[in-house]
Fold this sequence. Notes:
Protein name: VOC domain-containing protein
Strand order of the largest sheet: 1-2-3-4-8-7-6-5
Organism: Lysobacter hankyongensis
Amino acid sequence: MPFAPTLDAEQCLLRLLALIRGLDSVAGIDAARLRTAFGVSFDRDENRLGFGERLSREWSTSFEWDPGHPHGPRFEFAFVPDPPGAHPPATAICAIDFDRFAAELAAMGFSRETVHGEHGRVLHDDFERGELSVTVYTRGEADDSPERITHSCVRRVVML
């Protein structure tokens, strides 16, 4: 049985980029802005707003707006593998890859810093513009060829 998500992976990332383009700070996010940006209704849980749906047999999406986060307002988008902890190929979520996503942020005036861990491994990329901070976590498309191993896909985006 095929899945028919309201937003496919490409639409999620394009609409996320449109949301980011119009923001001066993460504090500018509210329920109306999220509904306009993504065209879906977000569920409310106390102060937080969330939306998620299944994209495919192996992937779901998760959107969460938490204006009361202990470290300040926070918006997070993620592609979530199913089951949690699984490592399926990311081809289904890679219609807009990290290089394109990063280029779009650069075109919006964001500066970029790549954060490395042990042995030079990339942990994430931080993008800054004024009061808006966007952290992008990536993963390789798949584990089966050098081209797909090194092809970076957006896995999670956190805005602070």
